[in-house]
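Lab notebook, bench 4. We co-purified these components, and the gel suggests they stay together. Before we commit to crystallization screens, I want a quick structural picture of the whole thing.
Request: model the full complex, all chains together.
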Amino acid sequence: MVVLLAVFSVCALSLGTPYVPPYRLVAAVLEGDTTLAGIVVSELRVPRLLLALVAGACLGAAGLVLQEALRNPLAVPEMLGVSSGAALGVAAPLVLAFSLPAAVQPLLAIGGAALGGGLTLLVAGIGRSPSAVLLTGAAVAAALQAALLVLMVMADQLDLQLIYRYLLGSLSARTWDDVTGLWPWLLVAVPALVLCAPVLSVLRLGDEDAEALGVRAQRARLAALAVAVVLIAPVTAVCGPVAWVGFLAPHLSRWFDPAAGAVRWLPWSAAWGAVVVVVADVPARLVLAPVETPAGAWTALLGVPAGVALMRSGGRRRAAAWRTPAASAGVREQLSGPRRTASGVADEVPPAGAPHHAHRGEPGPGGPTSPPLGTIRTEDVR
Amino acid sequence: MTRRFTALAALAVICAAAEVVAGRGMSPGVVWDVLNGGGDATERHIVFQLRLPRLLVALGAGACLAVAGLVLQSALRNPLAGPEVTGVTPGAVLGAVTATALGLAGWDSPLAVVLAACAGGCAGAALLWLLAGRGRGDPAQTAVHGVLVSSVLGGLTAMVLLVEPGELGSVVQWLVGTTEGRVWEHWHLLWPWALLWGTAAWLLAGPLTLLRCGDDIALAAGLSARRARTLALICAVALTAGAVAAVGALGFIGLLVPHLAVAVFGADLRRSLPGAALTGAVVVCGADATAQLSSRLLATALDSGRLTVPVGALTACLGAALLLLVVRRTPSRTF
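Here is the predicted assembly.
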């Protein structure tokens, strides 16, 4: 992962027009504004890279928080209406030609995101089945998207390009100003994130067990949503909702370390999110040069299939892991329920549903009628 | 039953009348004059060359989408299946946009657009089928997968649009679904297509009713379930593609109108398929009339001529609200 990040960072800094060879990068940054290459690297490419890292990390972490809080591997900002809400909050003043100071934009985005996410959870009922929550979220997102499209219909042709690009999530033409605008929000979000991580691992046990351990499940969920909103909204305000990073990054972190808990996954998820956005931004800049494609389109194209594949293979690996010990272990677990250590975090015991998933993902005539993707079930978030 | 059909037909006439008089710039009295053979040249042109085709296209597209949705829901035994959440509509949009961008089809050759939309719709449906397995499993899950597929296709569409920025302006309206600026040409293309596939769907009504009851019962009755399902899916994709090529991606019509139609006309598809067609036509037409009226009101309120509410925005908002109700009411029931 470190290698991947390094390679693509260097690519991001050196490729493009003008091409700056990697060995000259340091010199170019140090020379600053004396040469053309120096200006391009230090004023355009470095902030863009930083922004990609920060945005990816925020989105990845937010995705993990949402997935863990709702115990639902598909609970991502896109599916809950959070992203669409934030985008609407930013795009509306743009089109309606209200001139606003840049500092207000994140606030609007936060308002929109909270509206979208809150509406979804309110209508779906927080404790209901995951699929119902997701469908509700999809409906809310669709309604918000329709509002966005109405705005776009009203926009001028010139604005239209900008808005459309923004709505997909694009890092083009972002400078130091945009990066510096993010810091205050990160200062708020990171401590909140650290605080809510342990609660997430308790929430995974299920509402009843969490209540027994003294966590108010509903309140904890709302808090998690609030944290996710604070993470997502400022990023959205700056570079648009880069799609599906919050879906892919948590699954990557789980896939590489399936035995860890939410606390361990959180930094990994942030790191993977950063990698994903940096990696996606390189083809976004270069593939169809001189036209820049939005990074969000790439993350959507590659992220969704990759995420689904990871979700399935993760399920299969778990199932395989639980086929090796005697099946009686699974039965015993079903009888006794998850054991817990004194710290209140579950040991690595299989959820009661795990034995069923041995058949998952092998569709074919005569196969069992279990859904190929049992991961949407609540008890199966590992 | 006849009474219900009559009532619905009356509703359709009322909606059509509303649609004809709802537009900007003419009072209802003038429209009446024109229809009686009066009025000056401009007024005549507006009514006969713009409003009538628009009305007909709205009716036809609504009927197509509703029938496609009902066929999908019956064939897959999934109350949450609709062209929008099975990847058919986004696929069709992608096909049409791609064909236009590559120069294979222009907005001046609508037939090519329809064919491209068809191919795209099939591709979208196939993608979902690969992802979700053969229509088995929990209906809500299939719908969730459909949303995932739709987002992938949306990403592709976005790429195409940004590579061909010239198309963006004309396509944005079409992405949300609109009946603005539809002329006779669209109608001439839509009605034979709709009639052909609509008839095919109606001929399939019997087998589809059996499929709704489950594969075992269908097999016991001597129906080859797989063949019937394949035919039905082809029908649904073709109908959706025609509607999408005519008015764009109207949201939620194909998902929700079938529920309404089944509630009113019962589950026997020989009756509820035509019923769904009528209902869909009424809904889209009414929504379009409402959209035009609200555009008019907003224009006077905000004093700007730029604001038009596309009908798709209205149906998406309405549909989202209704979908929430459906999801709340039927958490685990299949039919």
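Chain B touches chain A through 55 residues (CB under 8 Å). Worth comparing against the SEC data before the next meeting. The radius of gyration of chain B is 20 Å.
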